[in-house]
Every structure is written in structure tokens, then in C-alpha cells.
Write a structure and sequence with these properties.
Order of helices and strands: EEHHHEEHHHEHEEHEHEH
Strand content: 25-35%
Organism: Limosilactobacillus mucosae LM1
Family: Belongs to the MecA family.
Radius of gyration: 21 Å
Number of domains: 2
Pfam families: MecA (PF05389)
Shape: elongated
Number of strands: 9
Distance between the termini: 22 Å
CATH class of the largest domain: Alpha Beta
Protein name: Adapter protein MecA
CATH architecture of the largest domain: 2-Layer Sandwich
InterPro entries: MecA_C_sf, Neg-reg_MecA
Length: about 240
Amino acid sequence: MEMKRINENTIRVLLNNEDLNERGITVLDLLNHNQQIEDFFYSILEEVDADHQFQDNDLVTFQVRPQQDGLELYITKTDPASLKKGTPAGQPPLDQDQITNLIKKELVGRDRQESHPDHNQENNVSAGDEPEAAIDNPDIEKNVCVLRIDDFEDLVALAKSARDNINAVSDLYRYRNNDYLLLTFIDDGSLSSSQLKDQLALAYEYGQKTNLMPDVILEHGKPLMKQAALELVRTYFE
């Protein structure tokens, strides 16, 4: 772990994957558990704030950015006097959804760049480039497959095999003590019925086909990784 004091109010901490492993933490843990995020961040703060200048301040915020081999963490304390004066106090802390979205976008963008280094997104704007918009668009047809994942290693293996072989939005949910992967294939005209059949066949090699309706999972399940589950798993478990 590396620590650098940026200024009197900000500490920059670099944690590689080995540092995270030593603490029993993965980036996926940070995506899924609010309390674990808070406990982990404050444990790092205790390690780097030997003189307690930050720990004794109630106005401490954490900003996190994923790196190729770990995390970059910014710890910032706000001077209460600046709040009384009405002066800017810097960026507000990230909430859980913002942290998840930040990490997801960073990893998905990196994964696409690694898979298609010469790909010009401006010349190929499709529903898959903006999954959130496509999924919410009632005019775009979709095929949703629900797989039960019995072993996390199966999910890791599927994520690796899916690169360049499965073109779908992937969501991981926990429902009734089981993990379910939802694969949403967006019919934007680029996926033929035979290609869809081949991609589903690959997915069925690693997950169990179920009769559960996607709406049941979406309404009653707990989201673990949304809209980029395979990309996240592939990035951190290859």
C-alpha cells in the first residue's frame, strides 16, 4: 500500500490487488456491501492517519477509482469553518450507487478497449453501447435468459468464455439464497436467431436454465452486479 499526502486536507492511497487480498477484500465486495465499504475505508484511514488529523474529523469523505491492479482512494477532510463561511467544501462523498456506477463504467470501458482496440464507437452506435437506454426503450425487442449459478467458479469461467462470444447485458442477483445471472440480448438487428442460439448454448454450459421469470428476480432479488456482471468478473478474476 502506498500513501501520499496531497495537501493538508487530502490523502491519496494506492492499494494493489495483493493489498486487498491481505485484507480479505475484493473490488466486488466493495460493490455489494454498504457496511463493508465503510468499514474497509475507515480501516485504511486508521492505517494512514497516524496523527488522527482525519479520524477526529466528522466530515471525512472517500473517493475511489478502480485501477488495473487495485484501487486508488482519496480521503478528504472538510474544515467545518469553511462550511460556516459558505465556501465550497469540495466534491460530496460518493454514495453506493455512484461508487458502483463509477467502477462499472471504468471496467466496461477498459474491457471494450482491450477487446476492440481499433473499434470506433462513433461509427457503431448501437443499443449495446448504451445498455441502460436500450433496456428502458420499449421499442427495442429483448430476449432475457435467467441462469442459476451454483458455483462462483462457473461464473468466472462463463465470463472468460463470454468475451467476444456473448453480446448481452449481464446482471447478477441473489434470490432465495441462490445467485442468478440475467442475460439480456438486445435485438438491434445485429444478432441473428442462430447467433442467439449459439450464445445461449454457451451460457448453458456454465449456468442452470430455470423457469423463473426475469420480473420475479428483478422485483424480489438483491442486485449484486448490474448491467456489467460478466465484465466485472472477467476483469478481476482473470
